[in-house]
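So, could you explain the following?
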Amino acid sequence: MKLDSIINQPVIETERFDLRPLRRSDKGLIELYGSDERVARMTTSIPHPLPPGVVDALITRAMASERDEDVWAMDGLKSGGSEVMGLISLVKMDRNQSEVGYWVAPIYWNTGLASEAVQALVRANPLENATMFASVFQDNPASARVLIHCGFEYLGDAESYCVARDTTVPTWTYSRKL
């Protein structure tokens, strides 16, 4: 019997849901939502179709004691929602900075979930960052509105490679001083 180690990562509470570290039991819901092409096409790293082992690898990396990214599940059990409604993460950068990334399951789109999750993460500032960055694909203006709503300021245009699209995609980059 192998026991998972306890991750040094805080639980961040909101009124509707908790941001909590990933656990192995999240695999099924992450696979369900992450395999949706609409979700994958708006991220840089989720392939479509979703190959076997991708979610296992994500969870293993997220649970490692030495990691460069903290990943939280948006867990809505306390308000009758799903155990995984989406994911949000902070990738550690140099100079006391991090990059926010998130996706929300399509059944929770247009409910304010993403805005509430980003706001909670900014308020908690679990890595004690001076600045947080985020970028979104330019064909995803809803995600840009989430960042603006949460106090992020537009920095400029760039492009990022999208695995699901197998091409580079124009992005808008934002930052938030903390």
About this structure: The chain has a mean pLDDT of 96. Strands lie at 12-13, 18-21, 69-75, 86-92, 97-104, 131-137, 153-162, 167-177. The radius of gyration is 15 Å. The domain at 12-128 is CATH 3.40.630.30 (Aminopeptidase).
